[in-house]
Specification:
It is built from seven helices and five strands, in the order βαβαβααβαβαα. With 175 residues, it is of the alpha/beta class.
Length: 175
């Protein structure tokens, strides 16, 4: 199987990638995260993904255009739905890339985090798979939460303290 793995950040990529490798799945990474704020945080996460990819010898497609404005335009006045919109933006981009790149399926490291809205991610990815005619590979990677943390520490990867958007940063540090 040729699988496109959307990567939200390096620490969340460690465990899913290790699991997919054990299954002998041909994985290519895809970095696209327009939600991350501020810009310096975005650059830290991008740098950590590049560091991790070099360690793992993982080939990654980088859509590293900083599109915070696009994310905010989608979310403003609909902040209660921000996660849905954020997941949709990133997963739609992954589905399109997988289809264009003739992958068998796509998946996401968002399925690793115990803090993400797992069922919502699965629902959105499933609907995008149908819309774009590309399979969505589902695996619940949350069982490897601790192992992923240990791997990211072993690789000395930058570990962020919040999901990425300005709202999650505020919730974590200010509100």
């Amino acid at each position: 199987m040729k699988l496109l793995l959307h990567i939200c950040c390096a620490p969340c990529g460690c465990y899913p990638y290790s699991q997919l490798k054990t299954k002998r799945i041909n994985v290519k990474g895809f970095f696209y995260n327009p939600n991350i704020h501020p810009y310096l945080e975005y650059k830290k996460r991008l740098s950590a993904v590049k560091q991790w990819a070099q360690i793992e010898k993982l080939d990654i497609i980088y859509n590293d255009s900083y599109e915070l404005d696009k994310y905010l335009q989608n979310v403003v006045y609909r902040e209660a739905q921000r996660c849905r919109m954020c997941y949709y933006m990133r997963l739609e981009s992954a589905a399109k890339m997988a289809k264009r790149g003739k992958f068998d399926a796509f998946t996401t490291t968002l399925l690793y985090s115990i803090y993400q809205k797992h069922e919502l991610i699965v629902d959105i990815a499933g609907s995008l798979a149908k819309e774009y005619g590309i399979d969505f590979y589902y695996e619940d990677f949350r069982s490897g939460w601790r192992e992923g943390i240990l791997l990211s520490q072993k690789y000395n990867l930058y570990r962020q303290q919040y999901c990425g958007c300005i709202y999650s940063e505020y919730e974590r540090f200010g509100g």
